[in-house]
Write a structure and sequence with these properties.
mainly beta, four-stranded antiparallel β-sheet, 0% helix, globular
């Protein structure tokens, strides 16, 4: 099992910045591809950004150039730096990993989510 705990959400004005963190339990974090998803009310949960175990990153078109995903394997923590925030970025942001590495069963593992609200 792995536990994921997000933090760093809040209320910010349009154009502002926030940094989200995702702390993972266990000793296999460095093996994991980690993702940030978000879900706005009445919308599906969408992939925002991913970072592989070797640091390769991918972003949704809607956040390219504004968001940066990173990781610190020594701290078992992933980050999402969000700049130039827009009202349409308002959502609950979730940390995610798909197991199947380091003895972890292949399954979807989610954090509890952290609310990001961007006011206009």
């Amino acid at each position: 099992q792995v536990q994921l705990v997000e933090s760093g959400g809040g209320l910010v004005q349009a154009g502002g910045s926030l940094r989200l963190s995702c702390a993972a339990s266990g000793s296999i974090f460095s093996l994991a591809t980690m993702d940030w998803y978000r879900q706005a009310p009445e919308n599906q949960r969408d992939l925002v950004a991913s970072i592989s175990s070797d640091g390769r990153t991918n972003y949704a078109d809607s956040v390219k150039g504004r968001f940066t995903i990173s990781r610190d394997n020594a701290k078992n923590t992933m980050y999402l730096q969000m700049n130039s925030l827009k009202p349409e970025d308002t959502a609950v942001y979730y940390c995610h990993t798909l197991g199947g590495y380091g003895g972890l069963a292949r399954a979807h593992y989610w954090g509890q989510g952290t609310q990001v609200t961007v006011s206009s």
